[in-house]
Amino acid sequence: MLTTCTTEKLDVPCTGSAHVPSELFDGLGARQAAISPKFLYDALGSKLFEAICELPEYYPTRTEAGIFERHGREIAHACGIGSTLIDLGAGNCAKAAALFPLLRPAQYVAVDISTEFVSEALARLRLRFPHIDMQALGLDFSSGLELPESVRAERRLFFYPGSSLGNFTPPEARVFLTRLRRGCGPDGALLIGIDLAKDKAILDAAYDDALGVTAAFNLNVLRHVNRLLGSDFDIRNWRHVGLYNEAAGRVEMHLEAKRFQSVRWPGGGRDFAAGERIHTENSYKYRQADAIGLLEQSGFEATRVWTDPRCPFAVIHAQA
Ligand code: AVI
């Protein structure tokens, strides 16, 4: 089920209380316990992710920003000006805002699961760019992409930076991209940033930083789950694990129980043995050819690719 809400009217999470707990119950009850990575992004989680992007170990944000800086004009040429810029997972809107002077969008639509966070960012952005028509959408676009009529249908340019595609499994990514391609309409396109496979040591450090910000980001999901589910996870009983699984081609984040514990929630609960893990995120790292293959299997035509010579990362423009 898809829940769409315009943030201006909202002061509650828009994730529809009817389906959120059942998804969480299923994940926590599974043999390999799991929590969907979307639950990492409550208001604090979004702020912690913002801090991760500043860390020296977390290269994707810096690398991608460098590509936008070095190739901005070519990127704008490929995308054209005056588009309907739809920013998926907009967060603090900083990445899209940096492109406004080049892309000069006719409309900017900031989509994020964390409504509170994105609407605050948009309020600040409206002051800087009063001539751009802007709207915020609180939307869990991982499960559907029904845009309201207020979003212009012409010249849609979906913007999906930061390698968020890596948080889907490849089959899920294909389903998601196919849905995006349909949402583009006949004259739409996609501008996407995809992280590429690299040295295990670099990846391990990026997802388990020395300051412990990624650990806090991961552990915070349990506080969010406690609020959503009424459970009694004690974050002091868990430790963060983030490492590259080379065979699977992905970084995995887990929470590992430090000791045996019983966790309760209304109507149920679960015992966790010491060392047992809850899987909280995958972050797939593609080879460039595989990333392009994925786009093409989803009906897109990759027209331009920009990379960084020192750190494998690709920004791709793909026509619908
Ligand atoms: C949002 N997403 C692309 C980030 C990533 O790199 O997979 C989330 C993240 N998880 C840990 N650090 C950052």
From TrEMBL:
One of its GO terms (biological process) is methylation. One of its GO terms (molecular function) is L-histidine N(alpha)-methyltransferase activity. It is an enzyme of class 2 (transferase). SUPFAM superfamilies: S-adenosyl-L-methionine-dependent methyltransferases. It comes from the Bacteria. Gene3D superfamilies: Vaccinia Virus protein VP39. Residues 22-319 form the Histidine-specific methyltransferase SAM-dependent domain. Its EC number is 2.1.1.44. Keywords: Methyltransferase, Transferase. This is L-histidine N(Alpha)-methyltransferase. It comes from Massilia litorea.
